Amino acid sequence: MRATRATIDLARLRTNLAAVGAHLRAARNPAQPAPRICLAVKANAYGHGAVPVARAALQAGVSVFGVATVGEGVELREAGIKEPILLFGLPLPEEAPAIASAGLTPLCSDAALGRDLARAAAAAGRTVEVHLKIDTGMERIGCRPREAAAIAEQLRGLTGLRLTGLCTHFARSSEVDQEYSRAQLAAFHDAIAAIPDRDRLLLHTANSGAIVGLPESHLDMVRLGVIAYGYYPGGDLPRPIAVQPVMELATHLVYLKRVPAGTGISYGHTHRTAADTVIATLPAGYADGYPRLLSNRSKVLIRGRRFPVVGRICMDQCLVDLGPRPDADRYDRAVLFGPDPAGPDAAALAAIIGTIPYEITSAISARVPRIYRGEKSINHTLTCNLR
Ligand SMILES: *Cc1c(COP(=O)(O)O)cnc(C)c1O
User: Fold this and answer.
1) Which of 128, 180, 232, 291 is the most buried (most CB within 10 A)?
2) Do residues 87 and 76 make contact, with C-beta atoms less than 8 angstroms apart?
3) Residue 18: its pLDDT value, please?
């Protein structure tokens, strides 16, 4: 197997999910049921691998999944996932038959899409469940709050369609100040007040930020993403849920050489060695998802110490300055990011280049093998059926 790999610790994913579950229960009167957890496994579970993550999550209390595309939902169904799968992103009309045959639950916010789904449901001889998405301030998808009751009625009038949920999405819940989220939640409650039998529908609004910052938004279900993978959505949020990164991206030093002072390193010679030193070549680059913007800015962890990335990160390789008398050998492991506090995590890399950990982990490309640790088989038959 190639040197560069992402190790995904499923035991840690389950621990993170258990910590979220405890937080959700603590936020609620013990007489009431805890909210369900919908785990966002879109974008290959933020780069961690949708199917192994979904299977591990099922063992940790997750009972609904969220995907962005129809293809992502079909992948879970083909892997034998039977739980409800919410389709967060809007499909094209031509995707309606695939939604019906895979039994996905789209978030729908207009009658036109509802009719396309109803037609596909009839053709497939099935019922398609939909959740009405209400836009309370994200301005991405969803109906206007004042139209919600009328659209809910139209969707309910379509044969083959079943309205089973109502939801909205927070635009600013990763901020410390939850005032805007609180206003969105109030707008959501106003919008659904006129929908008959809303108590029988699944109400959900909270993403990771609101799970932490706005307990009154938990309602019947939360839509959890980044916290499950071990990161917080915003740097300044309080951190009441103890989680650890699930992914480690590591490689091995495949080449070491001594260079004199003044040597230009990599494309464009954006780095020149200040003194005689040893440069290591790592077979990981931006096509693996290690961002080129980190050139001359990030560090990697080798034998418990951090060494700087020098020169431009290339498509498939990058270079690290080990210093003049390195305590490192060819084929040593080098961690690009992960849970070890001695090295950077994805949030630290994200901060260097002005992005968020979501973008770092979800960009780890398909050519990086994923190695799974901590798999727990609870059902032997199920395990034997895999692949
Ligand atoms: C991705 C997504 C989530 C999860 O967001 P996190 O910030 O990762 O918790 C929730 N809801 C919707 C609609 C999403 O697209």
Assistant:
1) 128
2) no
3) 98
Tokens of 344: 């950077």
Active site residues: 42, 267
Nearest CA to ligand 1 atom 6: 225
CA 355 to chain centre: 14
* 323 DSSP assignment: E
Interval between CA 43 and ligand 1 midpoint (Å): 11
Helices of type H across 133-230: 148-156, 179-192, 208-213
Three-class SS state of 207 = coil
39 residue type, one letter? L
Positive or negative: CA dihedral 321, 326, 329, 333: negative
Instruction: Look up residue 121 and give its amino acid.
Output: A
pLDDT tens per residue across span 36-85: 999 999 999 999 999 999 999 999 999 999 999 999 999 999 999 999 99
Q: What share of the chain is helix, strand, coil (3-state, %, to 5)?
A: 35, 25, 40
Token pair 């019947």: residue: 220
Cα separations in angstroms, 209 against 77, 148, 171, 285, 339:
28, 25, 10, 31, 21
Ligand 1 pocket test, candidate residues 85, 207, 229, 231, most atoms within 8 A of CB: 207
Q: Residue 370 has which token pair? A: 């994923």
Q: Cα separation of 229 and 246, whole Å?
A: 5
pTM: 0.96
Would the CB of 224 count as within 6 Å of ligand 1?
yes
pLDDT (tens digit, 9 = 90+) per residue, 119-170? 999 999 999 999 999 999 999 999 999 999 999 999 999 999 999 999 999 9
The identity of residue 62, as a single letter, is V
- From CA 147, how far away is CA 133, in angstroms rounded? 11
Query: How many whole angstroms from 50 Cα to the centroid of ligand 1?
Result: 15
